[in-house]
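The passage that follows is intended for readers who have already worked through the single-chain material. We present the inputs for a multi-component assembly, then the predicted structure in tokenized form, and finally a short commentary. You are encouraged to pause after the input and sketch how you expect the pieces to fit together before reading on.
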Amino acid sequence: MKNNKIFYFIVILIVAIFIVLLLGLKEEKNYSLQPETKKLNNSILLKELYSGKNIFLNDLLLENEINLINIWASWCSPCKAEHPYLINLNERFGINLIGINYKDNLDNSKKFLSDLGNPYDEVLVDSDGTKSIELGAIGVPETYLINNENKIIKKFVGPLDQDDYEDIISLIKK
Amino acid sequence: MINQIGAYSLYICLFASVYLIFKSYISLKNFDKKFYQTFFATLSVQLFMTILSFFTLVFAFVFSDFSNITVFNNSHTLKPLFYKISGTWGNHEGSLLLWLLVLTFFLFIFFVTSKKMNVRYRILTILFQEIIILGFLLFILFTSNPFLNILPIPDEGLGLNPILQDPALAIHPPLLYVGYVGTSIIFSASLAALITKTVDNVWASHIKNWILISWIFLSVGILLGSIWAYYELGWGGFWFWDPVENVSLMPWFCLTALLHSIIVLKNRNVFHSWTVILSITTFSLSMSGTFLVRSGILNSIHTFANDPSRGVFILTFLLFLVLLAVFIFFFNQKNFPDTYQRSFLVSRETSILINNWFMMFFLSVVLVGTAYPIFLEVINDAKISVGPPFYHKLIVPFLIPFLFFMALGPNIKWIKDKIIKLNISQIIFLILSFVISFFIVFNTNTNYLFSTLLFTFSFYLFFNVINSFQKKNSNLSQKVSHLGFSIFMLSILFNGILSKENSANMKVGDEINFLNKKLIFENVKVESDSNFKKLVGEFKLNDNGKIIHFKPEIRVYSHPETITSEADISSTLFSDNFLVFSLIKNDGFFNVRYQHKPLMIWIWISVLLMSLGGVFSFFKLNEK
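Having made your guess, compare it with the prediction:
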């Protein structure tokens, strides 16, 4: 009798998992690289890395310009690989670059920036990762190109490479 | 023409499979003395046809036959021969064909090497294995046929993603597949043994070889994937907790647990149902891995071509197999032999059980981290990301007791032993380990809470294993594997706390100083290879008088057009020096990233040592 219950339980569990995975497949796209039609949520409030002040993400975006948001962490090796591109985008092309430090230890993230250079105009700390997820991130690193209407016009998932870098430059120059 | 040969041999395979399922079902009821010849003949035909269709595809790749759509999509005439061949399994369709080849090959080997076993058991194993083969054949023929024609025949192919053109990656999938597919034999055989009431120590010593084969190949396969990530991705890491990496790690944990529990079944004739549960789970995890990777349900840096209809097929097939296994398990539970054996708390059995608990815990962590985001997204429409911090926080603290039990376990006797034999040498080892660890952690200014303890118990395991090499009673393979694991832990720990790096923008002639080292960018050259052009940088590093030359490359592939950075890594037994440069500005500046990674090579060596332990056990070097 006891075994029967376990048996039914396991069968139901397996079928439930099956249904969830099936629905997962049916989802249009698990992750969309499409540009967003809505404006950025204007209530994203985060602490600044060095000063600890609370700042609204929207207040950091420059008007009438293209802005770049980069989500990164010191424990993320691919972030190191894309770092040179960010430095050059900021230093050479003067793009306004906002870093969101994702689920990280503050000392490690400061060390990361002092070792490898700081490409960011401002770094905000998203210690529990919720705000990055609200922005639509599924991991680190991710980079978002924001237009002058505060809409995400392009998402780069994973480390930026040469192609992405040239892509961004051509979009800035337009 | 070639396409027809390949496709028709797959259809013959399909008929053989249906025939074998039918025949084995009949033979179970009316046992026929000539069964051996019939089965042998049909299995041989099936194996031959799979080999034929596989080599047809290899042939099409080698001779760049672009009338075949798989070749057209994944190859190019300018590709070197080696990568033309490895291109065969570097894509979805071809990799499934390889999977099928290993399936039929293993079943054939199983059939000819199991003559001493019960006849019904052998027939049932063939029945279950043929169901799996049939499923894969239908999957290949109807959703992923590698032999489709393309008309008009194109002159040139689209090429293979350059990042996949790497020797480690060329042999990584075949090894991983041998590991995965080996678990299918374990699955079929455990179900067959359950039905025929032969889950006992005889069966255990028979199936242990299959567990060992799967485990060895899976370990080496994962290792090669990791080596590829380290050398090719140029990120300087070797494990990223990426979902695609995790799906290969999950069956590994399960298989490692099984490898230990089968020893108990073999020696003590207990843990019957647990062993069968582990066998079923291991294969289900291998299949789920295929599903997760191939269906595109995961968000991962490893992007494979995906197609939802394939996902639905694998998922349905997986559901069928798992439910079949669950039904068989529950309706045959009375078949487990009633061989109650008294065991005491302090015994080898307990220590192996502890190993199994830890393995199940590690497995659960990785499973939750990999699958939970999918579930949450479907149920709640929320997106979350699980990254390395999650795995580190949950796994690292538990490694401490794990290492401790691993150090003591093998010294404990079967059935009953005295409360942990803390003799003088054990205490000395523990104190010595602690002192060394404290000294190391203190000198490197790491403030991680667990560092000292992790170091202590890794050293403790290391000393214990070294010490056990003097004793004659314990077995060689276990000692070698455990030694491998302790070196693995130590090299990861040293690597973690002693790695250094530096990044700078440089142009030819520049010179920078950091960490008592001097790096000079001497020259950059443009060279051509058969299918790419490359910029070769020449760097000289002066590390306290020791000179190292680096020649990292930036490659520009033409088919498809891609730019990749190839790191130059100089490996010694003590450390790796890693240098990668990337194109950044048009005015002659390059970004140069240097990393110093101590004991890197020992991570690879230690995993090979672990696998070598498995090889020793397979060739019965313990029982001399």
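Commentary: The beta strands of chain B are 500-506, 511-514, 517-528, 532-543, 546-550, 553-558, 561-566, 568-571, 575-583, 590-598. The longest strand of chain B covers residues 517-528. How closely did your sketch match?
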